Backbone:
């Protein structure tokens, strides 16, 4: 029998999950939920879903679901996940898993106790290009693996950290085989961030509707330490206009570099290789595009663009079918959020923050309370 899927939250990213479920063999998208009837009906009409709800508790009670995608803003991921776990439904939560580790721990615990899977949707690590880059690193194709750099799209850093930083941390965790520590500097309007600079994400970033909880800073420089002395560097700056094509890892090895960056016109990822360990403007080394066979991007007879949620949705669906844990399940689901907390912990203590963090409280709310 096919798997029965549902989605809570019918905004932007829900289309990507709905397309993924609709495109997978033996999976049926049977129910949708949104508090806004217009958003609910638009998405349900688009995918011909007749079971429509404005209350997720009612949906979980009335529907027999194998998996639910949680596509609301971050503060609601916890309540929806815990209710789904209580109803015995596997959960694929959009990122970030939550806005704080205490709540995320409760989500992991609720799913563990209920015997259901919980994964977070960081789709990049599952894509063929990311898998290929990792194979190159592991086979020594770029020599000794040294570092990975990521730059934000240009929104205020405190907002961007929760929105895109979690993706970057997950990809660094993937390429570096684990993150051991985080060291960060956070500034706001040119000064080092203090408690007085802590604010809600909607106050810091007025150009994005998403609720990322309490945040701080417009600029961040983040250094991550991985296994075998490798480093990750994340730079988040405010700049206009936003430039999505800057996203994607730049990987340095002792004998070469790799980049996976979206094409500025199509938005589709491309992998590039350069046989030098550094670049200089006056001696521009040659960059070569690495093309993968097209069939690598085919799932159940359909060709998929890179960075689509299909890659994380498929891992969850396969995990259920194969009776195994999802790749980004359990404690692994916490790593990218641990790094967000570690950024603020490191900034305020002026020291490295080691993972996993002992203090699970939200690092900013805790400081406001103190
Ligand atoms: N993985 C990715 O690449 C990716 C990309 C974009 C967004 N996201 C994440 O997806 C999440 C949603 O982002 P979005 O851009 O789709 O937001 P959005 O604002 O477009 O959609 C959110 C939807 O949730 C609905 N909602 C609010 N409260 C609800 C409730 N109680 N029950 C049911 N529905 C409710 C809203 O009405 C809205 O339609 C965020 O956490 C965001 O970070 C991930």
Residues:
């Amino acid at each position: 029998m096919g798997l029965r899927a549902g989605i809570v939250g019918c905004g932007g990213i829900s289309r990507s999950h709905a397309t993924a479920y609709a495109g997978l063999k033996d999976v049926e998208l049977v129910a949708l939920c949104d508090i806004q009837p217009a958003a609910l009906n638009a998405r349900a009409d688009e995918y011909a879903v007749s079971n429509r709800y404005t209350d997720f508790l009612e949906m979980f009670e009335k529907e027999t679901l194998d998996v639910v995608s949680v596509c609301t803003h971050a503060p609601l991921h916890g309540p929806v996940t815990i209710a789904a776990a209580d109803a015995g439904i596997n959960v694929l939560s959009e990122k970030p898993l939550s806005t704080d580790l205490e709540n995320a721990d409760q989500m992991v615990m609720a799913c563990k106790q209920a015997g259901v899977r919980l994964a977070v949707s960081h789709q990049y690590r599952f894509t063929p290009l990311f898998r290929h880059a990792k194979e190159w690193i592991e086979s020594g194709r770029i020599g000794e693996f040294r570092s990975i750099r990521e730059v934000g799209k240009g929104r205020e850093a405190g907002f961007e950290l929760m929105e895109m930083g979690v993706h970057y941390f997950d990809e660094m965790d993937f390429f570096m085989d684990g993150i051991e520590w985080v060291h960060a500097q956070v500034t706001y309007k040119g000064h080092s961030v203090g408690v007085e600079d802590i604010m809600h994400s909607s106050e810091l970033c007025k150009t994005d509707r998403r609720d990322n909880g309490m945040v701080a800073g417009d600029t961040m420089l983040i250094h991550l330490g991985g296994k075998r002395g490798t480093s990750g560097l994340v730079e988040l700056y405010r700049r206009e206009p936003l430039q999505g094509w800057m996203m994607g890892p730049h990987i340095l090895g002792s004998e070469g570099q790799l980049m996976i960056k979206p094409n500025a016109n199509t938005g589709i990822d491309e992998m590039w290789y350069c046989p030098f360990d550094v670049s200089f403007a006056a001696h521009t080394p040659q960059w070569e595009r690495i093309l993968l066979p097209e069939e690598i991007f085919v799932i159940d007879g359909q060709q998929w663009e890179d960075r689509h949620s299909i890659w994380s949705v498929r891992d969850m669906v396969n995990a259920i079918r194969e009776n195994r844990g999802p790749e980004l399940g359990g404690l692994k689901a916490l790593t990218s959020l641990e790094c967000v907390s570690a950024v603020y912990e490191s900034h305020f203590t002026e020291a490295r923050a080691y993972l996993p963090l002992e203090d699970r409280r939200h690092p900013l709310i805790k400081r406001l309370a103190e």
User: Anything to note?
Assistant: Residues 94 and 354 are 25 Å apart (CA to CA). The chain has a mean pLDDT of 96. The longest strand covers residues 179-188.
